[in-house]
């Protein structure tokens, strides 16, 4: 189960695992028992004590550095990439940002376009996503799209690994084909 808009009130170790009290966004508290618990508290950018107050670099309320599509800060000679530029805080995002910054410095016309950065939670089963969610696509009324769900039971790899549960869900933009 994936519980969204839920706060962990307390956790207590019991004989068979961890007992957690959970509060939903309406204030209802439930108790559930789990074999294991993964606690993720997040990260913050390290933008302090860098001397940035002596530059035109701007830091937003989340302590992230403001950058443009070329990863340039308000100080034209300072570029920033990675965790200090904001979510998502992923290594492959930082790598792409670094490439964009290097190309811009070399005079190449390029920009960082983060529309479809893949992200993965390495749990069992794994969760991964990229691009727009179904609700995000529906909110963009100008996008006509189809939803395709592929059960993992249809995947030879999933079956041979004895994990056929789950599915892959694709949000596919419908394309208008013009015949000439």
Task: Summarize this entry quickly.
This protein is α+β, with helices and mostly antiparallel strands and 180 residues long. The protein has helices at 91-105, 134-139, 156-160; strands at residues 6-14, 17-24, 29-34, 119-121, 127-129, 145-151, 167-173.
3D architecture notes:
It contains 3 helices and 7 strands; from the N terminus they run E-E-E-H-E-E-H-E-H-E. The strands form 3 sheets. It has a 3-stranded antiparallel sheet with strand order 1-2-3, with no helix packed on it. A two-stranded antiparallel sheet has the order 4-5. The protein is extended and about 55 Å long. The model has no long low-confidence stretch (mean pLDDT 89). It is of the alpha+beta class. Helix content is 14%, strand content 24%.
Tell the overall outline. Answer: extended
Low-pLDDT residue spans: none
**Total strand count, please?**
7
Quick one: biggest sheet? 3 strands, antiparallel
Query: What proportion of the residues form beta strands (DSSP E)?
Result: 15-25%
Distance between the termini: 50 Å
The H/E string reads EEEHEEHEHE
Radius of gyration: 22 Å
Strand arrangement across the biggest beta sheet? 1-2-3
**Annotation field: number of helices:** 3
pLDDT averaged residue by residue:
89
State the helical fraction. 10-25%
Return the structural class. Answer: alpha+beta
